[in-house]
Amino acid sequence: MPHTLILAYGNPLRGDDGIGPEAGERLRSIIQGPDVEIRTMHQLTPELMEPISRAARVIFIDACEGSVPGEISERGIEPSTAGMRFTHHATAEALLAGARALYGRAAEATMLTVAGAEFSLGSGLSPAVAHSLDGVVAAAMRLLDR
Question: How far apart are CA 40 and CA 68, in angstroms?
């Protein structure tokens, strides 16, 4: 059973939305050992509820809209069924709520987001978001050290 589950998500074909998978791959190259499981994906799906229920904690990494491109934010998140839908977009809060409802527990969870500048079709991160990649990886590593 992994102690920490890192879910790094976003669409690398939508510009800065690819920061999650990029950070996840960078973390995968740094972190070795059985206590951390890193998954990169395009979007959150209901199938993640089961591994979330088994983890002691979860770190979500994603892009977001924001006024300062490249700005990194960190916040604790709690299970919530508000706006719950499991079609093409599931929220981290809804997955935590689903894990609790279906499996009896939800991991402690933190969301790391990076404000994006460009979300149109195209690969590659904008300069501001690319510059924040080291920062979001460092933030995840700090969370792992806690």
Answer: 25
